[in-house]
């Protein structure tokens, strides 16, 4: 039997109503008296979540799981990236405000953070002179719009090309004096002996020392201006590590063949170009940069890799990337995420397969870029990545550019939301309502994700949630997470679905112990908001809860 939301009578006790008639009165006709339902769960937390006395953003191990803590509580970054190409070299001051309109749009979409690229060429306009105007501007806008920041350091290489510049306007990453001076800063050589003017050799210590100095100044500034407010959560060091160009299947482009590199390749006994590039980039460059930055401000550092596969034994989609190698050589790298772009009709198994490849050693699989178009990929992938894999960050690319499908951006030029923005907002809103709990239990057996195998399908799925039999039914890309907190205590979040529990307790007289409450967590405190819609079927011994719009419901019996 289906009922409307429980209503509170003058005596303060819950009675289940059906079509305006007290459910208890109807059940009396059938000898199935159900009175009274208690007044939900109150303000007490069902289970205490872990807290940290260290308020600086950092990772801690809790019961064997690495958790990101922000302001002392478990946290998951729900972000989208903004681009960088409209910040033009030679006119950085003039183009400073190019992306300002995206910050209020990000808040309206339910994001809790933005990924913001910081180009080395902006930070060091002249050798040894540092300018952090854009860093401060982004931070001010984030604070005004109640957002946190992930700063993407675009330095030595950027965007999967293995280049220090793509052009001399909006895609200039290294400072111009480095770009024009090949003698001081030698270039990389491909397997055909061709020198690439836009790719620096990773055997060149001069450019690495320059970047270490600039990155150290960058971290000094962050510590100075943000040490107390913690608006800046993490630093992505470089963007899509690579060696040469986008032709990833060309073996002549898999490592630097400069004389210094060839000499070291032979001395170290390498035979695999991919392994050599990953080893040299990580040990000679990224390790040194991140170690220098961490000595100043120990914020979490991470990488993002191109989605795809080059060869067996290599987890990374571009030459120079390999998860295991970087984790071994760069202890300051907290995790390596995947930039995963998929067809709109991708299945849950497609998501799991890609994320499972990044379960390497201590790595936490994360989504550092994904679809930002009208397809359902992003909101579905977010539930899988965060719920099943415990991803510390989820961030489509980008707010104002749709990819891989064109002309479907989340945010239009006038700042209004469009296309896939509303579906992602539903997803992020539901997660935000119980973010400490999701962040704590994501990737463990205590949290299970329910959704259709393929987008748009109706579904009914039964899973064992840490010993409890739970069924979720839904449609129109509805989805849910069910978290088992204690013996008979659960947290439900999602939308466009119904959740059903089966238990012998759902018959009289045990019904007086059933508690159901709708609300959200503010910090680690539960706040009741409105009435949940639920009903009990005594003949089937089931409790069913409707999650029509994005919401969180607490249940115990």
Written description of the protein model:
With 557 residues, the chain is α/β, with parallel strands linked by helices. The chain folds into two domains: 17-39 and 446-556, Chondroitinase Ac, Chain A, domain 3 (Sandwich), CATH 2.60.220; 58-441, TIM Barrel, CATH 3.20.20. It is 25% helix and 26% strand. It has 13 helices and 24 strands. Strands 16, 17, 18, 19, 20, 21, 22, 23 and 24 form a nine-stranded antiparallel sheet that branches. An eight-stranded parallel sheet has the order 14-13-12-11-8-7-6-15, with helices on both faces. Helix 11 (377-389) packs parallel to helix 12. It is elongated.
Give a brief description.
This protein has 557 residues and is of the alpha/beta class. It has helices at 23-29, 102-108, 120-123, 133-144, 176-180, 205-226, 259-267, 273-296, 323-329, 348-357, 377-389, 421-432, 435-441; strands spanning 17-18, 21-22, 58-62, 65-70, 73-74, 77-81, 113-119, 148-154, 187-189, 195-200, 232-237, 301-306, 333-340, 367-370, 393-394, 447-450, 459-465, 468-486, 489-502, 515-522, 525-528, 533-537, 542-547, 551-556.
Spell out the blueprint of helices and strands:
Blueprint: E1 17-18, E2 21-22, H1 23-29, E3 58-62, E4 65-70, E5 73-74, E6 77-81, H2 102-108, E7 113-119, H3 120-123, H4 133-144, E8 148-154, H5 176-180, E9 187-189, E10 195-200, H6 205-226, E11 232-237, H7 259-267, H8 273-296, E12 301-306, H9 323-329, E13 333-340, H10 348-357, E14 367-370, H11 377-389, E15 393-394, H12 421-432, H13 435-441, E16 447-450, E17 459-465, E18 468-486, E19 489-502, E20 515-522, E21 525-528, E22 533-537, E23 542-547, E24 551-556
Parallel strand pairs: 6-7, 6-15, 7-8, 8-11, 11-12, 12-13, 13-14
Antiparallel strand pairs: 1-2, 3-4, 4-5, 9-10, 16-18, 17-18, 18-19, 19-23, 19-24, 20-21, 20-24, 22-23
Helix pairs in contact: 6-8, 10-11, 11-12
